[in-house]
Amino acid sequence: MTLLDLIEPLREVGRQAAQLSPSDYVLLAHDWCKIDYKSHTSKKDLRQITHEHDIGYEMSTSLLIDAASGASLAPMQMHLKTGNAVHSTAIDRPAMDDHRLDEVTPTMNESGDWGLDRKVVHVIDREADTLGRMRQWDQKGHLFLVRCDDRRVKWNDESVLLSEIEEHFDREILFEACGDALYHGKTVTQEVAETEVVLHRPHSEVIDGEKRQVSGDPIRVRLVVTRLLDENDYVLAQWTLLCNVFDASISGYQIALWYYWRWLIETYFKLLKSHGQELELWQQQSGEAIARRILVASMACVAVMQLQNDRSDEAAETKRILIRLSGRQMKYGVESTPPALLAGMMVLLSVTDILESPDVDIGTLKRLKAKALPFALV
Q: Which Gene3D superfamilies match (predicted)?
């Protein structure tokens, strides 16, 4: 089966879930991760990612997220860059020498053909804080939400730094409390302030092998600054966000939530790697085989993410059974976690397979248990 065949069931899950959302929007979080295979001598298509000992593959993923609830829905696009090829679910697959961000625009273009029936907001971390790309996305009509560093913008017809606007928010007490948030497991206060700014300066662009300053059309964006405060009003963390969604029904707080939910893609990566599927231990000998298995494994990840998001009584009972099978201990007040549910699901499938075998019955299992645990009560 091709990668396009294998991504289609995941996209269908994403389509169905997006159409059930009460929001007019859906989020598509873009991120990249390294797959460490430096000790896998059987794989002949490994690439050097940074330094000479940083060997493996580079994977980029676009994860669909419900804009109303923040629920993970499904990965909708995947590229796996090896030493000699790019294995991709895209129709317009990236080239070997493309920069990471060069992969984003084609995915933005293709997302309009996925039948999501929602406006797609592309959420990207600080790596996408490049004016040239934001101009390109805005001109093509794509909606984006990007975390940014300090930069000069036009505000109230004056050229100022974003940091100066943030100081103005603080000085004029324009931050508004919008509820509680979790920070390293502790409940803290979240505040938000926003205004409109214009990105007007020239941007850098490589033309004929030389980096040049290029003037472009100014673009209007919403500047949203969100911060977390402890009980003493000390600022624990602060994020500066730029977004071109101008919709009166979408508040600055909602935009801050959208960026916060971007971290769900990190949970997906953990499920594939150290907290579930153990991707970096897979023994397939080519990037193409690894890419196929990633998509199959992603189906299991989506199944447990759906279960984690389900608040029904039936789902609660299923979670309880899977957590018991997993052997994992939960923190006080935590019902379940996706890694624990995935571990329990694997045990359940193994147990079910044994019970459905014609040469194994409950009596046989009890005798095996008695031999393995001679002091257990049978």
A: Transposase Inhibitor Protein From Tn5, Chain A, domain 1
